[in-house]
Amino acid sequence: MSPRDLARTPGAPTHPVDEILPVRRLVPAALQHVAGMYAGLTAPPLIIGGALGLTSAQLSVLLAAALLVSGLATIAQTLGPFGIGARLPLTNGVSFAVVAPVLAASATEPRADALPEVFGATLIAGAVCFALAPAFCRLVRFFPPVVSGSVITLVGLSLLPAASTWARGGNTEAADYGSPSNLALSAATLAITLAIHRAFSGRFLGRIAVLLGMLVGTLIAVPLGKVDLDPLADAPLFALPEPFAFGTPQFVPTVIATAVVVMLVSMAESTASLFALGAVSGRPTQGHTITGSLRAQGLATILGGVLGSFTTTVFAQNVGLVALSRIRSRYVVTLCGAILVLLGLVPVLGSLVALVPPPVLGGAGVVFFGSVAVAGIRTLAKAALGTGHNSLIVSVTLAFGLVPVVAPDFYERLPAPAATVLGSGITAGCLVAVLLNYLLNHLGHGTEADPDPIDFPGTGSAVRPPTGRPVPGNDPAPPAPAPAYEPFGHAPPASADTPSSEAIGFPGPLHPLHSRLNHPRARSIRQDARPVQQPDPPGRAAPSDGW
What we know:
two-stranded antiparallel sheet; 20 helices; 4 strands
């Protein structure tokens, strides 16, 4: 019986992901997701529109299309109709990775022709994503805890610089960027969020502490003059995106190649975010989850090419909100997607969300970006970091992933495709973690099958699997059976001898070609580790208690 069939079985307990919350809790939680992703969602079209010198009307088309496409994609991700979507509390938005390629295309072509070429390439990139989705679903077995934990941690750490930019004012060219007033407003928002979370711990108000903190922070920013009301006055009441509003799409091979590379980067980042969301939601990522999610992402990108939006990706900041609030219902994010669609059709409402100043977003971002990193650290706790191989994998992965964060121009002299891939810290770290895990843990001897002595719960004994010889001072004992992990987090209840942290399992072997349970050397190790039964001396009966 599949996990989805189990969820539909009458009398089966409802997983928190499938829980339908009452309206009084559903609406604030959805608004919290909208507020958390709005700045990151609207930033790429604003930057691109400003660089291309678009008029206010053209910029409104870009913003409306981005909101509408992201909302529809988010709804598909949470509901999963016809196998399209992850059926998780997952949000989709415009990838920031498209900014550099679009600006590069506008530098080599007249500005009037840049967007038709970009949208033509976006159509092709979306089709590539949809076609490659079934192949990407097989990546799940390449992500044991040492890999997935490293990548999840890297996702959270890579987002923290965005929070620091917001905390200083968002616009690096503004006169007050990094001013004490901006930093104080960001710190006040953070302090208010933490105070609400502590005062209402365990209650619903504590779970929407980020939303309440941003609301109070915005109210504090009004008398300080940091809330811009001009977008609210200039926004039209209603706007319906027009297909191909910027002209007939043009298909230029060089622009298409760059868009496909950006799409592959986005797919890798989305896969990493899916593992993070699976860890924090209690429903571990499966192969069909990745397939459905990438199909929705590909279709949303195709729709973006038609309506005037760009490549979409999973928004990791919303994963942090799920971890912080512990509200895992996917229907909360469904309502978030519906609100985004409404904001795209009614720009006046979207301008209300835009009133939140960047320093307020920065203070809140510290909380939910850091929550993603904590989820990764908790996943790493399930890996055998006592061995030199796994600790080395984690250290090199974090180093490669954080280099583009601390030195953004590190790869600027490389060819454009290589710079795009390595310049994304999440993608570079993900590739390094998978490669090192295979090279160090699955080729040759001295691999992850050689951990430190294993203490078996409740026996007071230990064995060293590589040799099967008992550790001095401990009586040898047979190894305890490995816990049988069930998909979607339906693991057996933890006993006194089973750590509760094992309730979430990661499906599949560590590598498709190297299943340690079937490896000949692993079988010999388990046989050698068993205690040898010594025959009783002649004329002496064995005691009845087995000792």
